[in-house]
Write a structure and sequence with these properties.
The chain is α+β, with helices and mostly antiparallel strands. It has one domain: B-lactam Antibiotic, Isopenicillin N Synthase, Chain (Jelly Rolls), CATH 2.60.120.330. The two termini are 29 Å apart. This is Clavaminate synthase-like protein.
């Protein structure tokens, strides 16, 4: 059966003035700084790169989050990725379900609404109870490196979403390249050799996640524990987050416990530290809790509706064979024992999803 191609236009947010939001400050000087990454990528010497590198590392020490602008990912690339993502999620459920996510070691395929429950808990029984009571109100499509000899991506047919596969493969490579540059900035900011991380992240063991948050009545989200995506930290080194104009991402102020909106800024990418990078740095760099909530729109005298939302997250990971242990220059006493990347990530995923 053939399905009509859906024309969807998703534009990055234009609701904020970048100059007015150079720093989104909150109580206790908690802020998510906006960093012009072109100053690092175009620098002609290590000394020139240091200023931006130190800004990034300082922000990751303080809040664990930054916005980067002039990052090298073009608006056209981002727009097309959102377009193709929207076309995929508008396929009939029976088509998407044929591509269902199957195994945490693969971490590829379609995840329907209610199957995942992100949380900080590592207790399978506790997570199962949370999922039963208050599943995350989102659906996702998970994409890994396409040449993996063991685990294969689950692509929709070209007839269903023309150009989807090639666009996502291209976007995957673009995001990996940006990840390499940001990790080099972190290395410089931590007074390590510029290319310290290169051979530890070059196998592209990442996860490109397309996210769709369907419109939902706001009353549903008022149930105890219910959320678009519950409070959690990410698993790997960095996350690159591309937001639409709806917003909803909130970051927890580690000093007050208050959740602060990470409002979309035009042409920026939100970048945050994941758990493995925090462990690698002995918690010098902060992996900060965050969640997705939902702005409400009144649809009647008694009801409000949370609008549909799209985002794209690129979860950056070390090579799966990499042992993550306390980095040089990050303390004399390691807080954590060494951990294998693949074992850590698969373990976290295994308790997050229903099988």
């Amino acid at each position: 059966m053939m399905f009509a191609r859906v024309s969807v236009l998703v534009r990055p947010s234009r609701i904020l003035s970048l100059n007015a939001k150079r720093h989104l400050a909150t109580a206790n000087s908690f802020s998510i700084p906006v960093i012009d990454f072109s100053k690092f990528r175009s620098a002609s010497s290590r000394e020139e790169k240091k200023q931006t590198a130190h800004e990034i590392v300082k922000a990751f020490k303080d809040s664990g989050f930054i916005y980067i602008t002039n990052h090298g990912v073009t608006p056209a690339e981002i727009q097309t990725a959102f377009q193709k993502s929207a076309e995929f999620f508008q396929l009939p459920n029976e088509v998407k379900d044929t591509l269902a996510w199957e195994d945490p070691r693969s971490n590829r395929g379609y995840v329907k609404v209610g199957r995942e429950r992100v949380t900080q808990s590592a207790d399978p029984a506790e997570i199962a109870a949370l999922r039963q009571k208050a599943p995350d109100c989102k659906e996702t499509m998970e994409i890994g490196r396409d040449w993996d000899s063991v685990w294969k991506n689950r692509w929709p047919s070209e007839a269903h979403v023309p150009g989807f596969k090639q666009n996502m493969l291209d976007f995957y490579e673009t995001c990996h390249e940006l990840h390499m540059h940001v990790m080099r900035a972190i290395a410089i900011g931590l007074d390590l050799e510029d290319h310290f991380f290169d051979e530890k992240i070059d196998e592209k063991c990442h996860n490109l996640r397309l996210l769709s948050y369907p419109a939902i009545k706001t009353d549903v989200l008022k149930d105890d524990g219910q959320a678009r995506a519950g409070a959690h930290s990410d698993y790997g080194t960095l996350t690159l987050l591309f937001q639409d104009s709806v917003g909803g991402l909130e970051v927890k102020n580690p000093h007050t416990g208050e959740f602060i909106p990470a409002t979309p800024i035009p042409d920026s990418i939100v970048v945050n530290v994941g758990d493995l990078l925090a462990r690698w740095s002995n918690d010098v760099l902060r992996s900060t809790l965050h969640r997705v909530v939902a702005p409400a729109k009144k649809i009647s005298e008694t009801e409000t509706l949370t609008p549909a939302r799209q985002s794209i997250a690129f979860f950056c990971n070390p090579n799966f064979s990499t042992e993550v242990a306390c980095l040089p220059n990050c303390g004399d006493v390691a807080k954590y024992p060494p951990v294998n990347t693949e074992e850590y990530i698969v373990g976290r995923l295994a308790v997050t999803y229903t099988m």
